[in-house]
């Protein structure tokens, strides 16, 4: 996993990836206009997942958080372990585009610098 300093210099970019499972999120097509590149997102551990031992949800970072999907399986273990250890990880939307019925969401997972 490559780690880079974000353009703002205030956090480390731990992972750049697509959000998995967006085609399975009810209401996402209607919600999509509210998503903007640069928008802050939240990552949340789903430790009771029966499909992926390292499941990490991706949500909007507001009081009425909207569940967008997951970090991709196979690329989520380090982030899951950091969340389990209490690290305050966040995420940021970097790009969005529709490809037929699939909402392509690219994100960065971030570790705030101290």
Automatic annotation (TrEMBL):
Assigned keywords, A-Z: Hydrolase, Metal-binding
Domain HIRAN as annotated: residue spans: 12-109
Superkingdom as given in the UniProt entry: Bacteria
UniProt xrefs under Pfam families: HIRAN
Matches recorded under SMART domains: HIRAN (SM00910)
GO molecular function: hydrolase activity, acting on acid anhydrides, in phosphorus-containing anhydrides; nucleic acid binding; zinc ion binding
Protein name: HIRAN protein
Organism: Hymenobacter lutimineralis
């Amino acid at each position: 996993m490559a780690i880079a300093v974000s353009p703002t210099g205030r956090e480390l970019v731990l992972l750049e990836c697509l959000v998995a499972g967006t085609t399975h999120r009810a209401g996402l097509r209607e919600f999509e206009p509210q998503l903007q590149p640069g928008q802050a997102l939240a990552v949340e551990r789903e430790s009771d997942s029966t499909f992926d031992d390292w499941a990490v949800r991706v949500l909007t970072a507001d009081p009425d958080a909207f569940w967008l999907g997951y970090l991709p399986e196979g690329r989520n273990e380090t982030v899951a372990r950091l969340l389990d250890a209490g690290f305050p990880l966040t995420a940021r939307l970097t790009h969005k585009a529709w490809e037929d019925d699939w909402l392509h969401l690219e994100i960065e997972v971030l570790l705030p610098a101290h």
